[in-house]
Write a structure and sequence with these properties.
The chain has 402 residues and is α/β, with parallel strands linked by helices. It has 14 helices and 17 strands. The structure holds L-homoserine.
Length: 402
């Protein structure tokens, strides 16, 4: 019997219990032994819950029970989750996590502790929810030198941008709708300001480079500055706006990791990723481009990825470890060194000034007394320098993804 404990009985934690129970014949057959949830750790009471008898409030009960070999950490945050994960790993219990914040901050250390204690720290669910992208990068793509990863990694912002484009609504109205539908949190800051995407692209960069990428140092621009006019001008010129996490690796193995909205040409696979779906577009030096697509959030999709890690840990123990990354920082390149074309929006009467600053660019459309313009290809530093000369003539600017 494989005895499992679940840390945190929220949305994902309750999903983990549900996947293990409802799919038990598959989960157990694929694990090579019967899998059973022995404990659920949560501070709260759940009167009447079918699994109420498994509820415990003290982590020590789990840590000191030698029968428990695998813990699922679905608490979130870097406080108690970090402490409990370390305690479990130090006792030789594998930990399967959906906690992107913890993985982004302490993943390398936790994988090292797992290695030292003959168990595994696994976290497929931390990036792209149910999309099996980390396992793909660390198994199927190991013959590749990965040179670039571009991901739509946040369902909330992708839903907002898609609805703004489809419904012609503005940002605030669409955010409210996302909240009503339960797609956006009451406090949506981490999603709309891009921090959630920054954590996920950091983890992808860690795996690509083999070194630690500090998510706090990832230059991050969210979607709050995007207006209905930007969406309309982009749409009429054949683009969708998407929030992308980018990790771009140079020949010398330095990585530029950043988060920003982009104009993506319709017809590119990333432009076709709509609503709460996620996609990760990976470029390898031999294989070329591949894309991994699916539900990037949600109770059962995310829980399915956690339980796949449970099965992996049950079957292979410590040998299941992802290749991982070490604790030394990656050589980071500023995002501004990369070259892009830029969309700029300006009042109609300032158009000639914009054209004069970007002589290689062209107008893409007009709407409501404003013009949309796409510049020639420029480094971020060069673009900013020219933008500064235009003062308040430019109302917004967004990179173009090519
Ligand atoms: N808030 C996240 C999203 C949930 O919207 O994608 C999954 O990490």
């Amino acid at each position: 019997m494989v005895h499992v404990a679940v840390f945190g009985y929220g949305t994902v934690g309750s999903g983990v219990v549900e996947v293990i129970e409802r799919n038990n014949s598959y989960v157990s057959a694929n694990s090579g032994d019967k899998v059973s949830v022995k404990y659920i750790l949560d501070l709260r009471e759940f009167p009447g819950d079918p699994y109420e008898s498994k509820l415990v409030h003290d982590v020590e009960t789990i840590i000191n029970d030698d029968e428990v070999s695998i813990c699922c950490e679905t608490m979130g945050g870097v406080g108690a989750a970090y402490k409990f994960t370390k305690m479990a790993l130090e006792k030789g219990k594998s930990v399967c996590s959906s906690n992107k914040e913890l993985v982004a901050k302490h993943g390398a250390e936790l994988m090292r502790i797992a290695r030292e204690n003959g168990c595994a720290y696994l976290f497929e669910a931390s990036v792209g929810g149910g999309i099996p992208v980390l396992r793909t990068l660390t198994t199927a793509l190991t013959a590749e030198r990965i040179t670039k990863i571009a991901g739509i990694l946040n369902g909330t912002t992708n839903f907002i941008l898609t609805r703004m484009e489809e419904d012609g609504a503005d940002f605030d109205e669409t955010l409210r709708k996302a909240q009503e539908l339960g797609y956006a949190e009451k406090d949506p800051t981490a999603d709309i300001e891009g921090h959630d995407t920054a954590r996920k692209i950091s983890i992808l960069s860690d795996i690509m480079s083999g070194h630690f990428t500090d998510s706090d140092a990832v230059k991050t621009t969210g979607i709050t500055g995007i207006t209905a006019t930007d969406i309309t001008l982009a749409k009429e010129a054949g683009f969708s706006i998407r929030l992308l996490g980018i990790a771009d690796r140079s020949e010398d193995d330095s990585v530029a990791a950043f988060v920003a909205p982009f104009l993506v040409k319709k017809g590119h696979p990333l432009a076709g990723v709509c609503d709460v779906f996620n996609a990760i577009y990976v470029t390898g030096n031999m294989l070329g481009e591949t894309m991994y697509y699916g539900k990037g959030a949600g109770k059962l999709a995310t829980a399915s990825a956690v339980v796949a890690d449970v099965i992996d840990a049950a079957r292979k123990g410590s040998s299941t470890m992802y290749q991982g990354w070490d604790e030394t920082p990656v050589k980071a390149t500023p995002a501004d060194d990369l070259e892009f074309k830029y969309y700029v929006r300006c009042p109609e009467e300032k158009f000639d000034d914009v054209q004069a600053q970007f002589p290689g660019g062209c107008r893409i459309g007009k709407f409501g007394g404003e013009s949309g313009f796409i510049t020639e290809t420029l480094s971020g530093a060069e673009f900013e320098a020219r933008l500064a000369k235009l003062g308040d003539a430019v109302l917004n600017s967004i990179r173009v993804y090519e």
